[in-house]
Every structure is written in C-alpha cells, then in structure tokens.
Amino acid sequence: MSETSVAKGRLPDRIVALRGRLFARINGDEGIPVPSDLIGVERFREVYSHPAAGGRSKGAALSDLFWYWLAPGPEMHQEHLEAGERYEAVARVTRSLLAVPRAGAEELARRCAGRALADVRGLVRLRDLMMPLWAEFAFELVFAEPCPRLARDLIAANADDVVSSLKCTGLRHMRRRLRLTAYLLDRLGRVRLPLPAGLSPTQQAYYLQGAFFNTAVVQLSEAMAHLLLVLAQHPEAQERARAGDDAHLDRVINETLRLYPLFGIAHRVTTGDIELDERTTIPAGSVLCFDYPAFHRAGFAEPDRFDPGRFDPDRSDRPVKELNHIPFGIAANRPCPAWRLAPIAMRVVAREVLDRYVLASSVSHTRSLPSRGPCLLTPLGARRRPGPALAYLRVRDRWEDIWRGLTQLVLGAYMVWDARRQRLCERHFASAEEHPYARPGSDHRSGS
Ligand code: HEM
C-alpha cells in the first residue's frame, strides 16, 4: 500500500501532495516517476510489465518506510518479498486460499455483512463500519470456521493501526499488532490449507498477518468506504444500483476505483537495464514510481468527473480492457491476487447495505480519505429529514480537516525519522549478505 494524491488546493490534499514530495525526496535522484517526461503515459504498461522492473524492496530507500508501516514481519509480506523460491511458495498459498468458488464467496460476504450491519443506523464512519466485516471474511477464508469475537477485534485493531499509520493519522502501536501475531501463532495448525514450506512458525504467522489480516482487510475496507461514499454522494447512481442493476453497480465499482485507486504509487527497483530508445536507458538499480492516479486520469474526458458510463462497452470507443484502468495492478508484474474475488465480495456487501439503508454524505471525498468516510445511514422506509445531519457533517468535516492535517504532518515527520533510524529493510538485506547461509527473513532478524 502506498499513498499520494493529486493536489487540488485543499489543506488535506496539500498535505498528501507534500507527503508525496517527501517520498520522492527520500529516494533521492533514483526515484523515476511514471508517467513523466522521460516515460510517457503511452509507455506506462510496457515499462511496468518489463521483466527488469521486478525488484520489490532491496535498494530503495522508500522501502524502510513501508517496512516500518507494515511491521511486524515486513520481510515476510508477500508484497515485499523479492522474486524467488520463497516468493513463489508464498504466492501459491495466497492464490489457493483466495480460490473460493464464486457462490461460496458471495455467501460468506453476505453472512459477514448481515452481522456487521445488525443494529447500525445514523452517522457512521464507513471504514470503521467495514473493518470488522472484512476481518471476519478474511478469518473464514483462512480458517474455514466462524470468526470468534476476540479474533475479529484483534484483526480489526491490527488493520486499523496499519492504515492509520500509513495515512499518518496515528502512530504505530506494535503491542497491538503483536497481540495478533501471538494469536495467529497459536492457531497455525488450524489453517485450512498447508502453509508455505520452509518457513518457521513465526514467519508463517507474519505471512498470514501481512497478506490476510492486514492487506486484505485494509484494502477491502478502504475500497468499500470509497464505494459507499460515492453512492452516498450520487443519489441517482445509488437508486439505480438499489433497483438491482448489477451491470451498473459493476461500472460504479470500476469508476470508484479509477477515481480513488487504493495505490497512489507502486514502486519497483530495476534488476537490469531498461532501454527506452537508442539514447535513453534506465539503469539497473533505479526506483520506478508508478503513479496510479495520474495513469487513471490520462486518456479520459473530464477525468475528475464521476461517470460510470465510461465502463459501458456500448459507450466506450475502446474495449474496456484497454482503458487506462489498473486498480489491481498489471497482469505481467505481480498483480493483486484478489483481483477476481474482491469485486465479487464488494458487490454483495454493497447490495446488503443498499437493501437496508439510504446513504447520504456531505463530506469531502479524497483518495486518501483520512476522515474514514463519515456517512448518514437511514433505514429504508424510515422518515428522512437528512438536512440538519448533513449540515453538521459538513461543518465537522471541514473543522477536522484542519487539525487532522496538522497532526498528519507532525506524525508523518516523526515516522519518517523513526523509520530511517530503524532502517528495517536496509538492515535486513545487509545482514543477509553478512550471513549468507541464513535465509533472508529468518526469525532472529524479523522486523519490529
Ligand atoms: C479492492 C480491493 C483491492 C485492491 C484495489 C487491491 C489492489 C492491489 C494492487 C494495485 C496491487 C499491485 C501493486 C503493485 O504492482 O505493486 C496489489 C497487490 C497485492 N494485493 Fe491487493 N488489492 C485489493 C484487495 C486485496 C485482498 C483482498 C488481498 C488478500 C490477500 C490482497 C493481497 C495482495 C497481495 C498479497 C499483493 C502483492 C502481490 C505480489 O506482489 O505478489 N489484495 N493489490
């Protein structure tokens, strides 16, 4: 997961843009933005798919910061494993755990939504509403048994801590995260499929925590918060989706993830030279920063306007597959393993919400959504006079933006400093070179 945004002049946007610049500074001159003057948007896919655009963490100063945010066990997080045997073993298990038949995935999502939405009404923060739901969903994917309350709370607390620190709205709380690690260690024997061979129990727990109880829960909660907020702010799209138009709901999901991609920047470290033309070569060891929001805006008329019709095959002048739209990454270069499952589960949960409530919100909607998506849920059929609640939400949102923006700057600066001090990634690889017979990621060196 990574963060950046297009600056639109409001304080939170300026702060996110400032953070983006900070990230670029951390990587020094190595960081090459894509698209840019050097690599135009028309070559975005080609360069992203290049076999030499394959290094994940080693050699990028930015990695120390991401490892810090993802700890404990960032060296076991699938997203940050370098290509090789260990990566293949881990990716295989993730694929198998996610390969649930469609009907089963839909039934599971429906059941989890039913529990999470019982007794909810009034003002909520959508991300907070979604986290326990996806915590239960991820737990059942991994253990194939109902999620106990204790586990749900540990998972939601872990995921919330990770995403809050990533957005610089809170600091890391390692004890909170390690409580989940300890719980998972105790339960390894009950995982429904064999875990990657050759990993110690601690490494297996870190792997599960990273992919399923951090990334899966955070990404699905963020994506649903964006989707529901979009529906809350576009009543026509909401009504049409509620009426049962599934094709329309799919287009709304696509357009939501185009406007608010969960990844700001995905970076890769080049493992060999990439020749752009006769005179220009990107040397090995460069850090390529693929800018999702910039790619998603390019090639669309009025790119900032919400228009799900862009994904209507009868309206689009290009096949939908060829649009600049990669919410789950690029097929040739480690795409999201949940690219099939996530939209299926999101559609079911959106339906469950729409069958129960009318959604309305007056808050500002940005890609980083540090407000966690304040929204008013009115049970269907209840008398509605949302005016005063929406006026209150608007004022509170503007006020929160100010102090939250300042908090983000202070906490962000502290975490950048702390991450550079700890140098989790750099030290991990340095120690692997010092002890060539110890496999990178073995227990004695695991992140803190
Ligand atoms: C709507 C929800 C989601 C979105 C939009 C999303 C998006 C993405 C994107 C764009 C990437 C690739 C980034 C890159 O090229 O570096 C990625 C990678 C990944 N995602 Fe997701 N994701 C979602 C949900 C999930 C879920 C439910 C899981 C469950 C395990 C998951 C696990 C991963 C993992 C493990 C990777 C790293 C893949 C690798 O390097 O092999 N994601 N995701």
Written description of the protein model:
With 448 residues, the protein is mainly α. It is 52% helix and 7% strand. The strands form 3 sheets. A 3-stranded mixed beta sheet has the order 1-6-3. β4 and β5 form a beta hairpin. It is globular, with a radius of gyration of 21 Å. The structure holds protoporphyrin IX containing FE (HEM). Protoporphyrin IX containing FE (HEM) binds next to α4 and α9.
Q: How is this structure best summarized?
A:
Helices cover 52% and strands 7% of the residues.
Strand runs, count: 8
- Mean pLDDT over the full residue set: 91
Order of helices and strands: HEHHHHEHHHHHHEEEEHHEEHH
- The helix-and-strand class reads mainly alpha
Q: Are any ligands bound, and if so which?
A: protoporphyrin IX containing FE
The dominant shape is globular
How large is the count of helical segments? 15
Low-confidence stretches: 1-9, 440-448
How much of the sequence lies in strands comes to: 5-15%
Q: Describe the strand arrangement of the main beta sheet, using strand numbers.
A: 1-6-3
What percentage of residues falls in helices of 4 or more residues?
40-55%
- The rounded distance between the terminal residues' Cα atoms is 19 Å
User: Radius of gyration from the CA trace?
Assistant: 21 Å
User: Major sheet, described briefly?
Assistant: 3 strands, mixed
Assembly type: single chain
Which helices and strands appear, and what pairs or packs with what?
Layout: H1 11-26, E1 31-34, H2 44-48, H3 62-70, H4 85-98, H5 102-117, E2 122-125, H6 126-143, H7 149-166, H8 174-187, H9 201-233, H10 235-242, H11 246-259, E3 265-269, E4 274-275, E5 281-282, E6 287-291, H12 292-297, H13 341-356, E7 357-360, E8 374-379, H14 387-422, H15 424-434
The structure holds protoporphyrin IX containing FE.
